[in-house]
Amino acid sequence: ENSSEFIPKCRACRRQARERSGEGDHHEGLSSDEELTPTEADEFQKSKDNVLEDSRKIFEDVHADFCDIRKILLKFQEWKEKFPDSYCDAYISFCLPKLLNPLIRVQLISWNPLEQNFTELEEMPWFRAIEEFSDAENISESK
Fold first, then answer.
1. Phi, psi (5° rounding) for residue 58?
2. CA dist list (Å): 81 to 85, 87, 93
3. Do 10 and 33 form a contact (C-beta atoms < 8 A)?
4. pLDDT tens-digit profile of 54-64?
5. What whole-number distance in Å separates Cα of residue 113 and Cα of residue 119?
6. How far apart are CA 59 and CA 66, in angstroms?
7. What distance in Å separates the CA atoms of residue 43 and residue 106, rounded to the nearest whole number?
8. Which segments constitute the GCF C-terminal domain (predicted)?
């Protein structure tokens, strides 16, 4: 049987089964295969809470100057202002993404753009710090 004909038949069968059982909380367009049972939802929430708790501990033994993106970027800005040749020779613009990646990833662990009240990336502190650093870098290059 053609698979394109099979899919609508399956949907019709599931719709009829929901109507007979009285399930009214299904939203059209969502697959019933994607719906989580209460047990699965609880397990997912526990797993998510464990990950978030572990992520809070990652940088607890790191000095504050080295786990705050703004402070790290300030150190690079000072380096660029005091020793521009050395800064340029070190290819810092290529190194910063790799350096900041773990710090940003930890901050994005709990970010979910599908939630109703999610924070836009542009409003996050790390994004603003990088933006300010980039602006300062562009100003110093134009001088």
1. -55, -45
2. 10, 9, 15
3. no
4. 888 888 888 88
5. 8
6. 9
7. 22
8. 70-132
73 occurs within a structural domain: yes
Q: Is residue 41 part of a domain?
A: no
Q: Copy the structure tokens of residue 129.
A: 């710090």
Burial of 133 by CB count in 10 Å (0-12 exposed, 13-18 middle, 19+ buried)? buried
Q: Report the distance separating Cα 120 and Cα 118, nearest Å.
A: 6
Q: Roughly how many angstroms between the first and final C-alpha of the chain, as a whole number?
A: 70
How far apart are alpha carbons 131 and 39 in whole angstroms? 43
For the chain, what is the domain count?
A: 1
Question: Does residue 98 fall inside a structural domain?
Answer: yes
Residues 59-115 have pLDDT tens digits of: 888 888 888 999 999 999 999 999 999 999 999 989 999 999 999 999 898 888 888
For 106, the domain range is: 62-142
Q: Which two tokens stand for residue 25?
A: 């909380």
Residue 55 has a pLDDT of: 84
